[in-house]
Amino acid sequence: MLSIKDSKLLKNQCYINGQWHDADSGATLAVINPADGSELGTVPNISPAQVKQAIDAANQAWGAWRAKTAGERAGILRKWYELIMENQEDLAVLMTAEQGKPLAEAKGEIAYGASFVEWFAEEGKRIYGDTIPAHQQGTRILVLKEPVGVCAAITPWNFPSAMITRKAAPALAAGCVMIVKPASQTPLSALALAELADRAGISPGVFSVITGSSPVIGKELTEDSRVRKLSFTGSTDTGKLLMQQCAGTVKKISLELGGNAPFIVFDDADIDAAVQGAIICKYRNSGQTCVCANRILVQDRVYDEFAGKFIKAVESLKVSSGFEQGAQQGPMIDIPAVEKAERLIDDALSKGAVLLTGGKRHHLGGTFFEPTVLGSVTPDMQIASQETFGPVGPLFRFKTEEQAIEMANNTDYGLAAYFYSRDMGRMWRVSEGLEYGMVGINTGIISTVAAPFGGIKQSGVGREGSRYGIEEYIEIKYLCISMIDK
Ligand SMILES: NC(=O)C1=CN([C@@H]2O[C@H](COP(=O)(O)OP(=O)(O)OC[C@H]3O[C@@H](n4cnc5c(N)ncnc54)[C@H](OP(=O)(O)O)[C@@H]3O)[C@@H](O)[C@H]2O)C=CC1
Ligand SMILES: O=C(O)CCCC(=O)O
What residue stretch is flagged as signal peptide (predicted)? Predict the structure, then answer.
């Protein structure tokens, strides 16, 4: 039994048009605690007709929601933010139970997720239009910014709360309405957010959370022309599929997909700081983060020093249930995730990599995995080109700055990159040379509500957070007013 103060936050129904619903058929999906395999509850596996009902409700709710002033919407969103923060502890418990991350990380994610609601409540008040010098006498040109309309969000299990608010908050602030389909592994965090949205006074239909089979729900959401936009965070393969499905109705899309982040340590770096940065960048959330360091590139001269200190720090990480005091690495999300880590390690070792620590399932059993470091990794190994999404840190060796940039860019992904250096000229050269949407310099953590999050190449389309994030939910309408001199 989960220990939460407000038992009404634990839901087993989905939230459509301001009401809680079972599936028409009564079908359910089980939600599993990855730390011990126990069942935490069930959620409805809804029918295509119920997805249509959610779209009907959203479409109907849109008019009244967009007609509110930005200030009125901001007041309601502010209330939602406050309720999320008041319930931070309970929401974190739900998250750790269904996702596995340490409770301290879960609390951090709740605050991070709430920060998008607070930020965009304010940002919605500053959606300014434009006037443009006209091209002829007696004419004026105006640019209006209008909400896109009914939006859908499909979100992943690795950040079960923040990936919802990062999409829903700018949408609602801009005057759009949103239907969210969370990952099947982590629907409880999403449904708890819906309960709090309800308490905050977000009107029926403005924010719905639906659960069930992803291909079925995805098809309904992408084929319905009333849904004007899809925002997705998840794997590149699923993102490509959804992009294709959205083509039929030419929807706007935002895609936040996979990464293959290089983490470069130059020989002028502060090595201790680089080790700390690499630990947090690689092992937070058990390595299941799209901006996690995926390849650690270390310059020849400092390779041995960095490797020695890094291995020591990795070996000191506490692996346990996320609820245990001091937990630093919880279980992985499921067995396929463990098998993927094993596959990548086996491939690397068979091609000449060296196991420096870890490398196998943890003695705690289930989906716990040892924090792992591989040395002498080379670009021909699968781990160099695939997103590991696990606690495996592969060390690559490089000689020159040019070689580091070339190795870093040698991937189809372009989400986040990191490097450590104390040379100002190098900071500019390398920042400009890296083909990535985000670059962390002398830091392993770059996520904040204040900055634009997103990637290039096959890592996605669009940006989330910051003042840029709200533009994803705005259409531009141009007015050409003539004959004003008559
Ligand atoms: N960029 C990122 O942040 C993430 C990257 N990944 C990467 O993807 C790998 C696999 O993870 P996985 O969970 O399978 O990622 P997916 O991309 O498959 O899942 C993410 C979301 O997409 C949904 N989804 C899956 N298939 C469809 C579909 N056909 N139509 C509509 N929605 C769909 C899922 O729903 P449901 O759960 O119900 O199937 C979930 O809500 C990971 O190992 C990692 O490399 C994974 C998650 C996040
Ligand atoms: O992994 C992701 O999908 C998002 C990363 C969360 C963040 O750091 O903002």
Answer: none
